[in-house]
Design goal:
The structure is a homodimer. Helix content of chain A is about 30%, strand content about 35%. Chain A is α+β, with helices and mostly antiparallel strands and about 80 residues long. A four-stranded antiparallel beta sheet of chain A has the order 2-3-1-4, with no helix packed on it.
Amino acid sequence: MPRFLDIHTGMHDVTPAQLAETHAKDLALQAKYGVRYIKYFYDASTGKIFCLSEAPSKEAALAVHREAHGLIPDDIFEVQEFE
Amino acid sequence: MPRFLDIHTGMHDVTPAQLAETHAKDLALQAKYGVRYIKYFYDASTGKIFCLSEAPSKEAALAVHREAHGLIPDDIFEVQEFE
């Protein structure tokens, strides 16, 4: 399944509790679109959030964010992951 | 230990073998700076590479890239990681 990394900007002053609550909304909805949100990264000092997901398409990944909480990322990239 | 996500842009037409070779240079050098490169993500269609690392500082993470192969990212973010 394709993997995606999205980037939200301007996310200043978000607490870990708010992040967790928002992320929980993605998790509650993701199966509807065949998506799995894997993890996310937050840089409080620049207000950036990066979300890593597996999804059948970019549109499916975005649909989860849109319907779950309406916070659409500024960018989304289809990535290959390497260790 | 702080965790960092960096972004390299303009990395078009890079083969998986070239990525692996370049990454191996980071791995060979990272202990010198107390850094651990964890994984990386490549989007061939936009030429973006994202590298996730643990490092004592942003400068240490960048020092590994600089000395290992000279490919310095365009951005680097100190991130908290959540599942």
